[in-house]
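Milestone M4 deliverable, item 7.
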Amino acid sequence: MADEVFLKLVGIKKSFGGVHALQGVDLEIRKGEIHCLAGENGCGKSTLIKAISGVHIPDEGSIRIDGEEMKNMKPMDAINRGIQVIYQDFAVFPNLTVAENIALNGELKDGVKRVSWRQIHKVAAEAMARVGVKIDPDIRLERLSVANKQLVAICRAIMNDARLLILDEPTTALTAREVESLWDIIRSLKEKGIAIMIVNHKLDEIYQIADRLTILRNGSNISTGAISEYDQERFTKDMTGRDIVQQKYQPAENKEEVLKVENLTRQGSFENVSFTLYKGDVLGITGLLGSGRGEIGEALFGLAPAQSGKIWLNGKEISIQSVSDAIRNEIGYVPEDRLTQGLFMDRSIRDNTIAASIRSYLKRGKLDEREMEEATERWIREIDIKAPSTRPPVRTLSGGNAQKVVIAKWLNTDPKLFILDGPTVGVDIGAKAEIHSILHDLASRGIGIIVISDDLPELVQNCNRILVMKDGRPSGILDNSIDEVSLGKMLIGA
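Output delivered:
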């Protein structure tokens, strides 16, 4: 069955106002296979998914499902032929129950005029049994974890007779354990003959799950092949068009303290956390979800202050009881959720860049527009934000460039300590390397850098010291001679 072709695209082209999003893309998805689609942000992945699902009608090329050419395919045509897409927001209804989210689509599709709650619960129970998950059918979606919301979306797709399930960046907000559970479910669906296409740019995860891989760049096919044909070097070169050297970060030894934390404690989050950050260091903080890793960053930035313990910054003891305290002490913070916490998405690059330092541009009660413009242009150049000017809304930028705007916002405050929670989540491999390079450069200039992450390759490659948290307590500070497998075992206490 795995050799039977379910979906075949030939020469798919799509343009928007003169911008060529897809330039003759070919793609073949076989029944009962797991096919990964990778490429940097802006390479055409989203446009291709929308062409497959009937949202966009290609300008040129053909789409065949089970050998039949689909002309002017609409979303409902794609759904009726078994194509189901689960986007990053899952398109679920947070105010409805698990059972309602799973079953109501089918009820609407069948034109049911009276709702049978018994039938809705029966459909939901059948879907969860087929997928192999157990979730309370009466709980509202807003109360579920991200992983369980995703499972509900998968259950709904299966009950809509999915024959090709497309998952867009499905692991972005999942822990390592949740990713493995998701892969188990995906493998079970594969065994039932369902074709799976996963959009992902993490090679370690692709190796765990994929049978084949297709890489796009600038709207064109670069390569397709069995996953065994790709190593890190080929994957990176095909993704970016250039060689990115993977070398562990190792600063020159320096015993000049930037930050010292002693017995930092917040009941219910973390306790007795102590560490020292030296000039040149990039300190990683990691741990499983609920370990206290993110809460340490929140405490140092005053979002949820510690109840006890001491903090010294550049040799001076400081008190952080609020965000105002942190900013006054020249601390910058990039939150994990940049879209809702780090950026004003509908405002310009300039407005976002000067947001944390706007007071410094007040001259006699007026904002100095020229200075704000110059500062933004300087950061666009220095950290290579790809944008035509300072004016476009941040919403129009790729994930990597949006993240650079958050970084620029805090660099414009001239911070002494810079804390970044999940700095490269949802960022492609090229932009990720650029962000890491920026952080290493800042550390070399004497700025204290803390990276909070559960991305073990990122930590081992880019942090020279790593603090491991477990159940709210530090379980060790390591150097980056440790390998990812050993670090992963340490996280789970093995």
